[in-house]
Amino acid sequence: MKSSAFVRTRRLAQAGSFFLFLRAALSAQTPAPPAPASPSPSAPISYSAVHVDGPYIAMTFDDGPSAKLTPELLDILAAHHIHATFFVVGENAIAHPEILQRAVREGHEIGNHSWSHPAFAKMSDAKVRSELQKTDDAIRAALGGRPVLLRPPYGSITLRQKRWINQEFGYRIILWDVDPLDWKRPGPSVITSRIVKETRPGSIILSHDIHPGTIKAMPETFDELQAKGFKFVTVSELIAMGTPMPPKQQLGSEGPTPLSSPGAATPSPSPAPSAGAGLTTP
User: Fold this and answer.
1) What angle do CA 105, 110, 112 make, to 5 degrees?
2) Which long-range contacts (CB under 8 A, 24 or more apart) does 170-173 make?
3) Which residues, at least 6 apart from 89, have a Cβ–Cβ distance to it below 8 Å?
4) Cα separation, 245 vs 199, whole angstroms
5) Is 83 a catalytic residue?
6) % of the chain at pLDDT higher than 70
C-alpha cells in the first residue's frame, strides 16, 4: 500500500504538469504584443511654414538673448498675450540663463541656434555637432531640459545635414517664410509693413531680438496682425496643428532653404531659462 506522502507528491506533480500544459496552450492562443512602431520615413523634419486650418502663425526671434532688448520684448509679448519661439545663440544663452528662464516661465519656446552663429553648410559634421551640443548643454543647464527645435544660422544647411542632425539630436529644423530683413535695420515701420504684408496662416515669421528697431516695431506689428485675425502660437504648437495638403502645395517637409537669410549677430547678454515649453527632459 502506497504511503499518503507518496500519493500527495504524485498529485502535486500531476497538478504541476497540467498547469504547465495549460499555460503553454494559453500562450499559443495569445498573440505577442506588436513591436513598437518606428517613425514614418516620410514625416517632415524641416519646416518653413505649416499648413493649418485656422489663422495661426508663429513669431520667432533669433540670436539672443540680449541683456537689454530681450526683456523689453518679453514685456511687449506679455502685454499682447503672445507666445513666441526664441532661437538662442549658445554664447548668449550661457551668459544670461535668467532671461531664458523668464521666457519659459511666460510660455515661450526655446530653440537651438548654434553656439557662435556659423554657416553650417560650409562646415564639417564634427564642427556642426560641436556647435549644436555646446548650445544644447547651455540650454539644458539653464532650463533643466533640452530643446527640440533647431534653426541653422543664415538658413545655411544641406539636406544631408538636416537628416543626420534630426537622427542624432532629434531636432526639427525650422526655417521661415516671412523675412522682414530686420537685420539690415530698415527702420521699425518698414519691418512692420513687410511682416504684415507677407504673413498668412501657417507662417513662421523671422526676426531678431538683438536689434533696437525690431523691438520698436513689434507693438504695431502685433496690433496689425491681431487686427487681421491672426493668432500667435509657438513653432511646436504650429507644427502640432498641421493638416495634410495636396503634394503640389507642400510647405513643410524639407522646406526650401530661404533665399535671403539673417546676417551674423554680435552676441549680446541673455537671461536665464526655466524648464518648460519646447524642451525635453534630459
Assistant:
1) 155
2) 170/280, 171/112, 171/132, 171/147, 172/44, 172/45, 172/46, 172/47, 172/148, 172/239, 173/45, 173/46, 173/47, 173/149
3) 62, 63, 64, 113, 114, 115, 116, 117, 135, 265, 267
4) 19
5) no
6) 72
From the candidates 83, 208, 209, 211, give the one annotated as an active-site residue: 208
Say if CB 129 and CB 112 are below 8 A apart. Answer: no
Cα separation of 270 and 274, whole Å?
A: 13
The one catalytic residue in 62, 63, 136, 182 is: 62
- 3-state class of 181 per DSSP? coil
Chain position carrying cell 503640389? 248
In this structure, how many other beta carbons lie within 10 angstroms of the beta carbon of residue 272? 20
Active site annotation includes 62: yes
Distance CA 105, CA 250 (A): 34
Q: The pTM is what?
A: 0.76
Distance between CA atoms of residues 86 and 125, nearest Å: 24
Q: Which domains does the chain have, with CATH numbers?
A: 46-280 (3.20.20.370)
* pLDDT band for position 246 (cuts 50, 70, 90): low
Q: C-alpha 269: how far from its chain's center?
A: 22
Q: How many residues does the chain have?
A: 282
